[in-house]
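Agenda item 2: protoporphyrin IX containing FE complex prediction
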Amino acid sequence: MAIEPTAFMTKMETRIGLTSEDKSILKSHADWGLANASTMADHFYTYLGRDEEMNAILNKSEGRIHRLHETFIQWFHQMFTGMDDWGKGYADCRWHIGLVHVKIGIGPQHVVPAMSVVVHEVGKQLRIDGKSEDLQDALGRICMIDLAFIEQAYVEVSSSAVLRETGWSEALFKRLIATGASSM
Ligand code: HEM
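Presented output:
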């Protein structure tokens, strides 16, 4: 069930509707993205810090929160630059971010609300700075693509682990899930 990050990226671009116009507008605001990344990181970690469970994860090791602040700035800026025009480098990077979160045990219930904070706070800042709705829409779409990577990593890692441990076929696994879901 392993995914190929570039193919997944292409599929998500189509499904979510990230267009070449979106990419152009994001690129033309890369400086704005970098200038606002630290403020967005502050909003993000203040929000996560208010949740007891997430706060414990953030402060589990010495210097983690400080490191995270820096990686958030890079992540935020990369949404505007697209790194390699939203190509293999971008897709591999997003897949890796997904895997990092799965390893730490961060699931959809943590990631979805966290991404909604990013979308909300960035929208507020764009309005304050008089930026266009087109930019806000483009950012919303790339945020959803990044979110899809983290969520998909969760599903892929969980199912691969079960398949490896049990030796079940993918078809059997899917059948068991379908049966389990109907009995819930
Ligand atoms: C919008 C959702 C999120 C984004 C975009 C995001 C972004 C990132 C990035 C870019 C990294 C660095 C990955 C690497 O090492 O290459 C990271 C790591 C990490 N994130 Fe997130 N994150 C999100 C949600 C969360 C949530 C909800 C938590 C919960 C507490 C969290 C906690 C962590 C932790 C603990 C690490 C590892 C830090 C370390 O290296 O020790 N993240 N995240």
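Discussion summary: The chain is about 80% helix and 0% strand.
Owner for follow-up: CH.
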